[in-house]
Specification:
By secondary structure, the chain is of the alpha+beta class. The chain has helices at 62-72, 103-109, 117-136, 199-202, and strands spanning 19-20, 24-32, 36-43, 48-55, 82-88, 91-97, 139-140, 149-151, 164-166, 173-174.
Length: 213
């Protein structure tokens, strides 16, 4: 049975105080980009804070890709937990773990504007582990950059023992099927961020795991 998530196209958006699945209440806006907005929400069953990502664009399948990859990564220590997904008031949404600041924010807010050698080595090892988990799930992230790598809500002061999480899977591509067979992963339209993109992504050629490194 095909468990792939697919949505229909809509144009309206969710708003603060909307309640999803009679459980998750949108409380405040966190940030947004070209395709989606992220809100902080409350799980009204246990008062736990969650993140709610909403599709605010006319690109109807970017959130589908994100949900499908996050579902495949459940169990990885480098992926947040997915609590639910659906649509309300014409908007597609997903509910997931609320995570901490991303690496760009951490560097900008640090006194020296850089990580210590110890922290950098620790973070680099974890980033490689995260990329390996994504590739083992048969997908390419296609938009690896500091702002798409976060830490948890709790971390030590120098981040040398913090767990990192990859986020924003809206640009991802599947390159292996469930049996591990290689699929064509041609970048027919550019996706990702130009500053961090691989040469093949820029030239719209066949993409592979090396492009995420």
């Amino acid at each position: 049975m095909d468990n792939t998530v697919r949505f229909t196209k809509n144009k309206e958006h969710l708003a603060e105080d909307d309640v999803l699945q009679s459980r998750y209440k949108i409380s405040s806006y966190i940030n947004g980009g070209s395709y989606g907005a992220v809100y902080q929400g409350i799980d009204q069953l246990n008062e736990k804070s969650v993140a709610i990502k909403v599709n605010t664009s006319n690109v109807e399948n970017f959130l589908e890709r994100e949900i499908n990859l996050l579902r495949a990564l459940q169990g990885s220590k480098h992926a947040g937990k997915l609590y639910g997904f659906g649509w309300l008031n014409g908007s597609h949404y997903m509910v997931m773990d609320l995570l901490g600041p991303n690496l760009s924010e951490l560097v900008q807010n640090s006194a020296k504007k850089r990580f210590s050698q110890k922290s950098a080595i620790h973070l680099a090892i974890q980033m490689l582990e995260a990329v390996e988990d994504i590739h083992n799930a048969g997908h390419l992230h296609c938009d690896v950059k500091p702002s798409n790598i976060t830490v948890g809500l709790k971390q030590n002061s120098d981040f040398s023992s913090s767990n990192i999480y990859f986020v924003d899977f809206g640009s991802s591509l599947q390159f292996k099927d469930k049996d591990g067979n290689r699929l064509a992963a041609r970048n027919s339209t550019f996706r990702g961020t130009l500053k961090y993109a691989s040469l093949n992504a820029i030239l719209e050629l066949e993409l592979g795991p090396i492009g995420d490194l």
